[in-house]
Write a structure and sequence with these properties.
The chain has 3 domains: 1-80; 83-277, no CATH class; 281-465, Rossmann fold (3-Layer(aba) Sandwich). Helix content is 61%, strand content 7%. It has 18 helices and 6 strands. Helix 5 (121-149) packs parallel to helix 7 (187-205), helix 5 (121-149) runs antiparallel to helix 8 and helix 6 (162-182) runs antiparallel to helix 7. The chain crosses the membrane at residues 6-27, 39-57, 63-82, 89-109, 121-145, 157-181, 187-208, 240-259.
Length: 466
């Protein structure tokens, strides 16, 4: 029996790995994402059960308590956290993952130096790597959460000789790590390295503006995976190594996708200052020099109801107002009038990839009604009316026409090419990029000011009455 159990545990780990890979593969499409999520959850359940039955476990009661508390927190978060808060929640969970990896590394260091045998070079390097990446991920994620939550200033926080300071601190850490490797039984120096890694993580995120936080969160997600993988090497758990590598690789791919969608290099995100929030003086002058054409709910409803084709562009404003159900009802009313309705989805609409897809799926919008940017952009020139709901930077034509704009070159939805564009916004305030949007002053653009859910409900009622 003692020989059979390890074989069963390794078999369960292998099955869990396969389920995690299949789950990640299915997340590539909204249509298969739900099934992929379930496969990944099943894989994690198999992994947890296999670990619980591992004879090397010393405190089964404590593990079960952790499982219950963790499952309770996860369930409450999934049920009550709004979709608009997902970037914050993901950032916080990344930090927890990094913190857990750092704690494992610290615990293993304490266990090893308490024994008579000195740790070998490989073991010490993996411990230091897991501790460093985990601590950096934890503190960086906490700062990112604070910026998105408004607890920390969203604008980049800069100081003189910042990059030099970062470099010197990193050199100090490397020197200290070298000393710990040479003399492992130095708790004081090891604790100092933990604090230094924590400071480096915070300093890494503070200079980045809140507009770039989604990219940073994706990068920190990759870091949490690398920390978990390093922890797998520390405790010699093959599943943890593979799962951490999967998270790390997918996080890097997601980061690259977001940078591409924003036409930003990762180096520019990490060392630039794009993302300063607020309306600048130039923006105020631009608004004063242009004419805004307003439209009321009744007129907008008539334009939509008597159009042949309507494209709806959801944005962060729709997510904040929780207007997705109202949008679905409006689309249903328009389809009842014989209007062809399509949803145009920008890759980073809502400040996270897939954010809009999830929101619309929550409102029972059919996947077949969703169109990616590459598919829908050629269609705009032949569209009667485009209804932009709370989107800003992702429909800003300055990205196409103004080389001086900080978002120049960023792929956008070409809504300005449609016959008519109706924009629902609370005001003319700029988006996350903090710049003015020329779309609002185009001759074929009409502004419909107000809360997205209230306005869309009004449009639906008016269309229904026609």
């Amino acid at each position: 029996m003692s020989q059979v159990m390890p074989t069963l545990i390794h078999g369960a780990y292998l099955a869990s790995t396969v389920l995690l890979i299949l789950g990640l593969h299915n997340l590539r499409s909204p249509a298969s994402a739900i099934g992929g999520n379930r496969l990944a959850a099943l894989g994690m359940l198999v992994a947890v059960l296999a670990t619980v039955f591992n004879s090397a476990i010393l405190n089964l009661e404590l593990i079960l308590l952790g499982l219950i508390v963790g499952a309770l927190i996860g369930s409450l978060a999934a049920r009550f956290v709004q979709m608009t808060a997902m970037p914050k929640l993901v950032g916080l969970f990344n930090g927890f993952g990094g913190g857990a990896s750092a704690l494992v590394a610290i615990g293993e260091y304490g266990r090893l130096i308490s024994t008579s045998a000195a740790p070998d070079l490989y073991t010490m390097l993996t411990i230091l790597l897991g501790m460093f990446i985990g601590a950096v991920t934890l503190s960086g994620s906490l700062v990112a959460f604070g910026k998105l939550q408004g607890l920390v200033a969203g604008a980049p926080i800069m100081f003189r000789f910042q990059h030099v300071t970062h470099g010197l601190l990193m050199l100090v850490f490397l020197a200290g790590a070298g000393l710990v490797v040479q003399a492992p039984d130095t708790w004081g120096l090891f604790l100092a390295l933990i604090g230094l890694a924590f400071v480096l993580g915070a300093l890494f995120v503070l200079p980045i503006g809140s507009a770039d936080m989604p990219v940073v969160i994706s990068l920190l997600n990759a870091c949490s995976g690398l920390a978990a993988s390093a922890t797998g090497f520390i405790v010699q758990n093959p599943l943890l190594i593979v799962a951490g590598a999967l998270v790390g690789a997918s996080g890097v791919i997601l980061t690259q996708m977001m940078c591409t969608s924003m036409n930003r290099s990762l180096a520019h995100v990490l060392f630039g200052t794009f993302g300063t929030s607020g309306c600048t003086a130039d923006t105020g002058r631009a608004q004063a020099e242009h004419v805004v054409r307003r439209v009321d709910v009744e007129e907008a409803a008539m334009m939509l109801a008597y159009a042949r084709t309507v494209v709806i562009v959801p944005g962060y404003g729709m997510a904040v107002a929780q207007a997705q159900h109202a949008v679905y009802e409006l689309a249903a009313q328009l389809k009842g009038h014989g209007v062809e309705v399509t949803y145009a989805i920008h890759p980073v609409a809502g400040r996270m990839p897939g954010h809009m897809n999830v929101l619309l799926a929550e409102a029972n919008v059919a996947y077949t009604d969703l169109a990616d940017m590459e598919v829908i952009n050629p269609v705009f020139a032949h569209t009667d009316v485009v209804l932009v709901i709370g989107a800003n930077d992702i429909v800003n034509p300055a990205a196409r026409s103004d080389p001086q704009s900080p978002i120049y070159g960023m792929p956008i939805l070409d809504v300005d090419k449609a016959h008519h564009t109706i924009v629902i916004k609370r005001s003319l305030n700029p988006g996350f990029a903090g710049i003015d949007n020329p779309l609002f002053y185009e001759k074929n653009t009409m502004m419909l000011f107000g809360d997205a859910r209230t306005v869309v409900n009004g449009l639906s009622s008016e269309v229904k009455a026609l």
